[in-house]
Write a structure and sequence with these properties.
The structure holds three protein chains of three kinds. Chain B has helices at about 10-20, 20-35, 45-50, 80-90, 105-120, 140-160, 165-185, 195-205, 210-230, 250-255, 270-275, 285-295, 305-320, 335-350, 365-380, and strands at about 35-40, 55-60, 100-105, 125-130, 235-240, 260-265, 325-330, 350-360. By secondary structure, chain B is α/β, with parallel strands linked by helices. In chain B, strands 2-1-3-4 form a four-stranded parallel sheet, sandwiched between helices. Chain B has a four-stranded parallel sheet with strand order 6-5-7-8, with helices on both faces. Chain B is globular. In chain B, about 55% of the residues are buried. In chain C, the strands form two sheets. A five-stranded mixed sheet of chain C has the order 3-2-1-4-5. A five-stranded mixed sheet of chain C has the order 8-7-6-9-10, sandwiched between helices. In chain C, strand 9 (about 210-215), helix 7 and strand 10 (about 235) form a beta-alpha-beta unit. Classes of the chains: A alpha/beta, B alpha/beta, C alpha/beta. The interface of B and C includes residues 72, 361 and 364 of B.
Amino acid sequence: MANKAKYKTAPLKCWQKAKELRQKYYEDYAKAHERGGLRWAGGAWTFSAIPSGLGEDVWSLTSEPYGASIAFNKDFSLRCLEATEKASYARDLCAYMRNYWGSIILNEYAFGGPFPKPDFIWQDHICCSHAKWYQVVSDLENGIPHFCIDVAVGPYKDVAPHKIDYLVGQMHDGIEWLEKTTGRKYNDELLIEAVKNEFRSTSTWAEICTYNKNIPAPLDEKTMYSLYVFGTLNKHDREVVDFYEELRDEVKERVDNGIAAIPNERCRLMSDTQPPWGFLKIFRYMEKYGALSVGSLYSFGLIGIWEDKPDGSWGPRTTPMEQGVEIKDRDQALRLYADWTLSKPEWQHFYSPHLKTEMMARIAREWKLDGILLHYNRGCEGLSVGIAENRLGLIEAGFPVMAFEGNMGDEREFDEARVKDRFDAFMETLGVKKD
Amino acid sequence: MASQVGLDQETFATFRNWRLKRADYARQWKERTGGKVVGYFCTYAPEELMYAAGILPVRILGSHEVQDVTEPHIFAMFCPFCRDCLAQGLKGRFAYLDGITIAQSCLHIRQAFTSWQKHIPIDYSYYLPMPNHVQSPRAKPFLTKELQVFKGSLEQWLGKKIDDQAINDAIEVYNRNRELLWRVFELRKGDTPPLTGEEAMEIVLSAQMVDKQDHNAALEKLLAQLSTRQTTRPTGTRLMILGSEDDDIEFIRMVESCGATFVIDDHCTGTRYFWNKVARNGDVLASIAKRYVERVPCPSKDWPDRTRVAHVLRLAKDYNVQGAIVMQQKFCDPHEIDVPALTKALNGAGIKTLFLEFDVTVPIGQFKVRVEAFLEMLQEEDLF
Amino acid sequence: MITAGIDIGAKTIKVVLADDGKVLAKSLVPAGIDTAVATRQAFDQALSAAELSRDQIDRIMATGTGRKDCPLTDDEITEVGAAAKGMNHILKTCRTVIDVGAEEGRTLRCDETGKVIDFAFNEKCAAGAGTFAEGMARALQVPLVELGPLALTSKQAVQMNAQCAVFAESEVVTLIHAKTPRQDIARAVLDAIASRIISMVRKVGFEKDVALIGGVARNPGFVEAMKRGLEMDVHVPEDPEYVGALGAALAAAGAD
């Protein structure tokens, strides 16, 4: 029995630009040497603005998105995973990492050609695997200079000068190391520019997410994955700032014109942890029930930077520039950068799952949600840490929760049929029927 | 239970009884001293500071019993050790604790701490952000400051100041314990170690459960006895065990019943616990910070350089190790990532390795088959 | 109103025909390779047992893992919903239903009307399901139906590694070689399965009355192990493997 479409829908105008921008990112990294430039590898959370101070011809490859890109392509992913296992690495390790290592072992770049070796590694460390990921990368590539900044100083609510000093001290050491390693002179102007870009891009992404508070939601999470990704690639880049501002304007327009992500929205959900990248069609299955995920702490707060607004709601963090702060020198830029990044929502649960439960419950309330889907993600300890307590806490807070096991990057550990089954049962408990 | 022919069980009874009756010990200690008992989850916990405050710091460990109570709290893909630890708390086996603390190292064990905070009544809890970038010069000043904050928190809880003298005294007691343990372990370098790996494990585990002053007294006695003991037990193949966390005594006993002796280890209930002393130099907290930053690292903190490999090779050489059992707590990522590099280095140095994955309980039968095959292989090597 | 509930499980197809809540007939057929054929067979068997023809059935509802491919049905309901409905009909005071089938274990909490409040599934783990019990029975060289009664004669508990089914199977071999009495091993195996199931049950919590359904509920040793582990009495309905199909038949009749 079909329900008549409640809402108008329309494809995103900037969708094509998003695809091109992403493709360009991976090409730039591969072509860096041809252009006489530098290329480096590091995590999605790394302080990517810092290597920008080495010049305008410096490009990066961030690890987790690259791992996810491999995971999209199930055949290639399986070959990478098996290559890694053959090299004696355990199957329960981070799935992104295993895909990435496999790509190096096979010497196949997911975007064509051989795997381009980075000139140096610029990493951050908060989950146990981060720095160690690149120890193995260095082993596999016969040694690559590696600098990694530890950011695990405790939750932002406890931030204090000595914690900022620890980060900034490592950053200063890192810059010296970059100069020595690359032989280039560091340019503070470029650093300041990059840092400001990052403040803007991450704040704008948060703003975009707030528009999903609207009923109907203008974006569905599956679409958002292709958009939030830029914050994981080169959030310090001017092109990303511009793209996000363009996207923000378009999303606002959709809200003003009542354009929805799905035509029959009647069940608003949120998800958690990375999705099973090889099985995003699960989101399309949900739409049969008029159900959609409007986001998650993951897609909102992995790159988005947030704060409490005067009206008590959760919104984009005000940038230093918006506060009238002028960034004049290297140390000041680094301090602001450290503080800004430490407030990242997806860094808080590392110290206590109860902090995450609070944020999730808040999202569920402010985004007016009917239920929560928790992906017990075997592929990522960092984001799954404490998830069982999140489940208990959210149930305690009165929200219906569905948990399902899977793996973001290892398709052998995701059972599509079973997950659909559970989703059917969940919809039954919510009293939501298929179209 | 007599496990070794020829070695004096009496000598080790003290240590074993401490381990088996740790709850009784803790309760009696509380009655005796009027002090508080705080459970810690990781060997990076700055015990000296707690001890200086009149606290007895005790290591929370699992029981190696199958349980069904942690599934609602910790996703089963996290290591069996952290789930086993939490299970003990949920089952009330640590009801005598006044507080719990964790010094940040790995993600898995953190969950035992945070679930404990929420679901088990406890008077005090503290999360110490022990830095991970221990290879950076910035780690020491950061940890020093964090120790100051921790000290302030303890003072507030206890309603009393912790002065430098008390901290210095605590450092002295702890250093003495490390010194004595180190001396016991030194004896295992010889051709006929006067104690088995099982006994060594009893000693080190019990150190994590009792007042170091009591432990030091027992160690002094033990050292005196060991110096004169004759052992008739054949040493057999000299083995090393290395891993993440390992306190499975039953496994050690089984291996040592197959014609082998563990002469050294590198894991966090073994040498990693006590290997490094505090070098007192000026500010007490800075001195403590230095020790914890520079100590033999947990794999989760061993980066960007893999210092563990050199350390393990050195231990293997100093203790004349013939084979290494690389044990793996199921799902422990940091150690898992190190295993290929460690194995390669050990094999390259002529030390064969046997990899075994541990769970809360281990399939002793299957493991025995593998261990016997491994030992046979090592013994054949000796013929040439 | 005469309705049919078809439960297409991993190993067996169950059909229940009901007339306004009264069971007219039931049938059980191995699923085999071709579930469509087996489904028709089971349905026909039930029809002939009730002496009814196809067009006398007003509505057919399917449940179970294979429900989406069922050619016969008008509608579907998940195993969770069906189990709750079925058990609620049998025992109005039932608030927790634990369903252990060949390959999957499930638990659910329901209210007095049989509406599901929360549920959990046993994830990707064979150690909590019927197939594991079968494998263990083979290793012990006892027919599956004797595994339970054998376990009940055990006088002592022997611990088994309960994390991994594959490990457990070779552990049984070790225990046999160590001359552990077979009844103690049988009990240990069932305790291990029960432990896995109870771990899952605790996620959602349980309150009385607790019912145990699905094929494995026919194993008295398993039922004992569950009672021991839950420290609570457990109700096993007559024909525990038909509760899902019954629930589907009731769902087909009632307004949801």
